[in-house]
Write a structure and sequence with these properties.
29% of the residues lie in helices and 29% in strands. By secondary structure, the chain is an alpha+beta fold. The chain has three domains: 286 residues, P-loop containing nucleotide triphosphate hydrolases (Rossmann fold, 3-Layer(aba) Sandwich); 99 residues, P-loop containing nucleotide triphosphate hydrolases (Rossmann fold), CATH 3.40.50.300; 129 residues, 2-Layer Sandwich (Alpha-Beta Plaits), CATH 3.30.70. It has an eight-stranded antiparallel sheet with strand order 25-22-24-23-27-28-26-29. A seven-stranded mixed sheet has the order 2-3-1-4-5-11-6, with helices on both faces. Helix 12 crosses helix 13. The radius of gyration is 25 Å and the shape is globular. The two termini are 38 Å apart. 44% of the residues are buried. Bound molecules: guanosine-5',3'-tetraphosphate.
């Protein structure tokens, strides 16, 4: 669907309203390595969506967060974002939910889990660096979910990798076919526009004198127009022509079905800083990003058009408001209409809860939204009844598939500051584990089982220590462990004991009893997999 074909509101029956609201929802996340330009691109998308008036405000907000935010005290102390948030804005009749994924030192399991709530992803690459470590990890999560992944090659305003080589690197590294839909145009080494292959036109941009705070002026010209030849000069024009011909002849043909299945990625070139290429990307993005799709449940797929409300919890945020010590469960709506006052069942426990007006999020602000539909994310105040992965539904039969746990990359031994408060500590660890804020394991030792915590990002450790002390009255110290490569093991007990005896492995037991071996590096893990032939090693818990 073209942005201009976005559904228009009209007074209709509830089911037509549901269809219309589902059709216009687009829920996505940006995956990237730190510094690729995610904040800058987010800001430009909000600018085009009219959610902010001047680019620069997201960053300015980041700087003034200490004064304005009511988020966790730790967040304020550090001046960074510990958890993901959701930004909602309208563009060309579409309602867009941009799920923010923390990227820097605040990277955590939440970042992965947020992707489970997205219907598509934008993979943002730095034109000098191509695919980097974080992008690769996040891409794999999206790939497993088979959602469309649209690539934006950023920072084209400064010299980078040759565009052809860059897409080749992406294909080799990630095993995904790339189809460039725009191609960068350079004039005297400067990035001046993009050629849109499907529209067969060059878009030349002229920068306004406001440091990228507003849209650039755009001139549209056919590839062979005399004006384009005159503007670029014959040599640059013929170079562009050759590249387009090469792409047409040797590149992967456009394949909408492969894009929808996440096997082909449409690629756009641009510069979030100068806004060059952002709007053509955004317009096309709305064609490739799907509206909410049927979601798998224990009893088969549930259509978003099912009138009864259903959704699942993909994140729990504790203490967003320190004055009230509340928890907010972030729920991705999968079907129906969120109606305050109606009852939903928590599938895991069979308990019913009554829905309050939904809390919705514009960037860092919590507001009470009037209504919510499939694809939207709402925050529900929780007093400890909900867990990550819980299904909430009017129909008690609906249970969505579990959210996968992601293997920790860091481990630390927990030393209670006060041994007399050990019960508080165990209680806190259990609750943090249920909430998804920590992965908790126990290792045998002379003094009984010692707790060990695992995390995807190191900042999760600081959050754990903070919360164990503040919320559970169990101050503790974490001793980082050198191991980082976990493998969940099955096989005969003697073989597991033998494998665990090797000195660079730490044997740990997950709380529900499945042994885990953690290795110092990937090489040691591979060695064990190849040599301990009696055992099965799984890189993820489930
Ligand atoms: P992140 O959220 O992915 O970590 O990246 P962020 O947007 O903060 O951008 C990281 C740096 O890259 C910033 O520079 C930003 O200005 C720059 N950047 C983003 N997009 C572009 C682009 O299209 N072209 C160029 N040339 N640079 C870009 P900084 O110096 O770290 O910060 P600042 O002083 O500019 O705020």
């Amino acid at each position: 669907m073209c942005p201009s074909e976005a559904p228009h509101p009209s007074p209709t029956s509830p089911s037509t309203t549901l269809t219309r609201e589902v059709d216009r929802r687009r829920t996505f996340a940006i995956i990237s390595h730190p510094d690729a330009g995610k904040t800058t691109l987010t800001e430009k998308l909000l600018l085009y969506g009219g959610a902010i008036h001047l680019a620069g405000s997201v960053k300015a907000r980041r700087a003034t967060r200490q004064v304005t935010s009511d988020w966790m005290a730790l967040e304020r102390e550090r001046g960074i974002s510990v958890t993901s948030s959701v930004m909602q804005f309208d563009y060309a009749g579409f309602r867009i939910n941009l799920l923010d994924t923390p990227g820097h030192q605040d990277f955590s399991e939440d970042t992965y889990r947020t992707l489970v709530a997205a219907d598509s992803a934008v993979m943002l690459l730095d034109n000098r660096k191509g695919v980097e470590e974080r992008t690769r990890q996040l891409f794999q999560v999206c790939r497993r979910r088979r959602i469309p992944i649209i690539t934006f090659v950023n920072k084209c305003d400064r010299a980078g990798e040759d565009p052809l080589r860059l897409i080749q690197d992406v294909e080799d590294d990630l095993g995904v076919a790339c189809h460039p839909l725009t191609w960068p145009i350079f004039h005297d080494g400067a990035f001046v526009g993009v050629y849109h292959r499907q529209r067969s036109e060059a878009l030349l941009f002229a920068r306004r004198d406001d440091h990228g705070a507003s849209r650039p002026t755009t001139t549209r010209l056919p590839l062979d127009s005399n004006r384009l030849i005159a503007l670029l000069g014959p040599a640059a024009h013929s170079h562009l022509r050759d590249e387009i011909e090469l792409l047409d002849a040797a590149g992967h043909p456009f394949d909408a079905a492969a894009i929808a299945a996440g096997q082909q990625s449409p690629v756009y070139y641009g510069s979030a800083l100068t806004n060059f290429g952002v709007e053509p990307f955004l317009e096309d993005f709305l064609r490739f990003a799907p509206p909410p799709q049927p979601r798998e449940s224990a009893h088969g797929p549930v259509s978003p058009l099912t009138p009864d409300l259903s959704g699942f919890v993909f994140k729990i945020q504790a203490n967003m408001d320190p004055k009230h010590r509340d928890r907010v469960a972030f729920v991705r709506i999968c079907s129906g209409h969120y109606t305050p006052g109606s009852d939903v069942t928590i599938a895991r426990t069979g308990k019913k809860i009554r829905l309050a007006p939904p809390q919705q999020f514009l960037a860092r602000e919590r507001t009470h939204g009037a209504e919510a539909w499939p694809g939207d994310v709402v925050g529900i105040l929780d007093r400890g009844l909900l867990r990550i992965g819980d299904t909430l539904a009017v129909d008690p039969q609906i249970t969505y598939h579990d959210i996968p746990r992601f293997p920790p990359e860091h481990f630390a031994r927990v030393h209670p500051a006060d041994p007399l408060r050990r019960k508080h500590l165990d209680n806190g660890l259990r609750e943090l584990s249920e909430e998804g804020a920590a992965q908790v394991f126990y290792a045998d030792s002379d003094i009984g089982p010692t707790p060990i915590v695992g995390a995807v990002g190191r900042l999760q450790f600081d959050v754990m220590v903070f919360r164990l002390e503040q919320e559970y009255g169990a101050p503790c110290r974490l001793e980082p462990l050198p191991h980082s490569n976990p493998r969940w093991v099955t096989g005969p007990a003697e073989a597991i004991d033998r494998a665990a005896a090797h000195r660079n492995r730490l044997r740990i037991y997950v709380t529900h009893g499945q042994p885990l071996l953690v290795f110092e590096d990937a090489w040691a893990a591979r060695w064990a997999e190849e040599n301990e032939t009696d055992l099965n090693f799984a890189p993820t818990p489930y």
